[in-house]
Specification:
Number of domains: 1
Structural class: mainly alpha
Order of helices and strands: HHHHH
Oligomer: single chain
Radius of gyration: 13 Å
Number of helices: 5
Distance between the termini: 28 Å
Helix content: over 70%
Number of strands: 0
Largest sheet: none
Shape: globular
Length: about 70
């Protein structure tokens, strides 16, 4: 959450528009993104604009997969 806030503060106007509303997209499991709301596209655009955010997101997804394997 702190990384996302820092990035949003330092973003230019276009980036701020893209980042607005991405908090829950970043927290959601990728399989639960809603196609009708274009959530996957919005998330990918935000990740494309900022490499540190993308790195943190993909690390979160990797950890989620590891935890899921442990449970299964």
């Amino acid at each position: 959450a702190d990384l996302r806030r820092t990035i949003a503060r330092e973003a230019n106007a276009l980036e701020k528009k893209v980042f607005k509303g991405t908090r829950w997209l970043l927290l959601k499991t990728s399989s639960k993104l809603i196609v009708e709301k274009d959530e996957h596209t919005r998330l990918q655009e935000a990740l494309r604009l900022n490499q540190p955010l993308a790195t943190a997101y993909y690390m979160k997804e990797d950890l989620r997969r590891i935890w899921q394997q442990t449970v299964d």
